[in-house]
Amino acid sequence: MTRLPPGQIETRRFPVVGERAPSQELAASLDRWTLAVRGEIEKPFDLDLASFLALPQKPVRFDIHCVTSWTRFDTEFTGVPLRDIVDGADVTPSARFVSFTAYSDRDHHTSLPLDVALESSWLVHQVDGQALEPGHGGPVRVVTPGRYFYKSIKWIRRIDLLAEDRPGWWEENSSYHNNADPTTGSERFTSGSLRPEQLMRFLTAGNYDKYRGRVMLGLDLRQWVPANRHLTRLYLKNCDLRGVDLTGADMRGCNLSLSDLRGANLAGADLSGSDVEGANFAGADLTDADLSDSALSATRFIDGGQEARVNGMEISGTWGLVEEQEEFLASEGVT
User: Fold this and answer.
1) pLDDT (0 to 100) of residue 94
2) pLDDT, tens digit, for every residue of 181-199?
3) How far apart are CA 2 and CA 185, in angstroms?
4) CATH topology of domain 9-166
5) ∠40-41-46 over CA atoms, to 5°?
6) pLDDT band at 1 (very low <50, low <70, confident <90, very high)
7) Which of 257, 334, 233 is nearest to 288 (CA)?
8) pTM check: above 0.70
9) How far is CA 82 from each of CA 108, 157, 165, rounded to the nearest angstrom?
10) Alpha-carbon distance 256 to 279, whole Å?
11) Where are the domains of the chain?
């Protein structure tokens, strides 16, 4: 059995994904970090940074599997197991789940069954011997080996032990799978987000204003012929766009993460400021396309011998490219 889960690509880097900075409340003074532990416990408590760092710190090494499809082997974090954090709080018999909430502008949160969290989850402050940078969740984040990394919330602010599950922000807003086991490759998302009649209305729409900023997931769009090229802020995640003609389209601020765009025509398209993490552009025409200021974690431009046409493509201000893809683009004169 291969160590790399289905659909993943290996990187030695540690790409920054998701929110890139905590809420202003924490960003203004990281050393004022505090953690509240509440819910189905007899002894609620708060923990400040000095008290957290005074706890016995231990290393934990595991493979990170990001839902955007990159994997980083043997990443070592330093911190405290969740079990040690809640020890002594007198967890009640009704506690069955745990919810983690972040210092973030959207109050990101995620949940796990309590037995899984007590077995696997840690609160950590170092990675590979260095303090966690804010972009990676510093000063303190959660990590949960054996789950896609969206179950490892950054900038942990609050832990609630719950009698009933509270599905997380990504699970609710992007249909990320609540179990998040990477080993099968089938637990990134739950299901598609449009009924057949809704999909047909999108495919035949004359304009796209009502769809902007709305996550549309897992759609087969191979027959789509856009009525116009004004496609800004369409969130077409994990969609099949193979071979679609998007020549010259204005796609600024789109979210095409994990979508299949192999063989699509994007010559001259403006994708600046977009999220194309995990998208596959192998065999696509990206001649003179603008991908500046876009998220490119695990984005594929070469895959299985197929290469995108990238002459004149702009990637200034982008982040997250894995090594193989960066080397391919550099060989084509795109840097």
Assistant:
1) 97
2) 999 999 999 876 788 899 9
3) 13
4) Sulfite Oxidase; Chain A, domain 2 (3.90.420)
5) 115
6) low
7) 334
8) yes
9) 19, 14, 18
10) 6
11) 9-166, 191-335
